[in-house]
Specification:
Protein name: Muconate cycloisomerase
Helix content: 25-40%
Number of domains: 2
Pfam families: MR_MLE_C, MR_MLE_N
InterPro entries: DgoD-like (IPR034593), Enolase-like_C_sf (IPR036849), Enolase-like_N (IPR029017), Enolase_C-like (IPR029065), Mandelate_racemase_C (IPR013342), Mandelate_racemase_N_dom (IPR013341)
GO molecular function: isomerase activity; metal ion binding
CATH architecture of the largest domain: Alpha-Beta Barrel
Family: Belongs to the mandelate racemase/muconate lactonizing enzyme family.
Structural class: alpha/beta
Strand content: 15-25%
Radius of gyration: 20 Å
CATH superfamily of the largest domain: Enolase-like C-terminal domain
Distance between the termini: 29 Å
Largest sheet: 7 strands, parallel
Strand order of the largest sheet: 7-8-9-10-11-12-13
Amino acid sequence: MRTGGGGARIRSVEAFAVAVPFARRFVLGSGAVGAPDARPDQAAAVVFVKLTTEDGVVGWGEQRALPSWSYETAETMAVVIERHLRPILLELTPFDVELFHQRAAKRLSPAVSNGFPFARAAVDVAMHDAAGKLAGVPVHALLGGKTTDEIALCSAIGVGDPETVREHAAQSADYAAYKVKIGGDPDADAAAIRTVAEVAGGKPIWLDANQSYRPSALRQLLDRTSDIRTIHCVEQPVPSTDTLAMQRLRGLIDLPIAIDEGSFSAQDLARVIRLDAADLVVVKICKSGGLRNALKTAQTALSGGLEILASGLTDCGIAFAAALHVFSQLELALPAELNGPELLADLYVEGLDITKAVATVPTAPGLGVQVDEERIRAESIDLAFH
């Protein structure tokens, strides 16, 4: 079967699930993500993907399953990759990214948005890593090249009491901005926002509700914090399916509204733009289904007059590096909230350069990082789906 790109065909596809430990407790509006004294459950593990070509070139991908954030679990990701995406990949080369997504969409038909984007993103990242190595260029060169060498990072402050929030914010003094998670309680959230503002000085604050608010309660929260002039925007205050509530909120509050869980694909965002339901969009590789799909969302945003925010899902090094390559060619409204190095006990790669909360875009071939395969294999868990 003729493929759409050059290079060595993919010979093998392996998936590993690892319950990656956190360095500190981290809570979203939709629930706890992780803590240092407890590994995530299997459903919320990180899935690593290893592609090997016929001539031995290896590409690595990674995505975190987080069922409280989106519907995919580690089990579903592993099943989709091993039973449905592997047969497609074994007919292709790492350069055949668009052909892979076309065939994946036919085999696992998407509904109103993209289908199984986290599983596909893990594979997509691995394909780009291998393709860059085969071509001898960094991934950003495959995407059109970078426009910046460094990306400033935004600190992620989880839902918590004022004392805990103050401690975390103080530990993040090097960061250029703060993303404050809010959980739906106007009193508690106002206290947390005020605490971060005291520590942050004049640095921008990015609120993220993770779908935890009703419009009326959000107005109460913003009324109580109206004197804090450094609040830049509020992200996904209402449920992801309620785009009309996002639209109504734009008429109820003065603060710019960002959409995240409510927009996975470029097509999703086109509907949001038509409804005038957001001012900014959060771009994530995981929900987009891959690197080029994330860039398609970004271009749709720019075409519709929306600003771009960059984020990840507590990535363990591989997906973090992929995000650096993507966001190195975009103009971001705020520093990127790529919080894996901040929140995880350890990363599973070497080669990242992060100094005073500023990450350098890798320049070595592929993703530009060295993956600790021995550790991934040693810590992998049996998902028992066979």
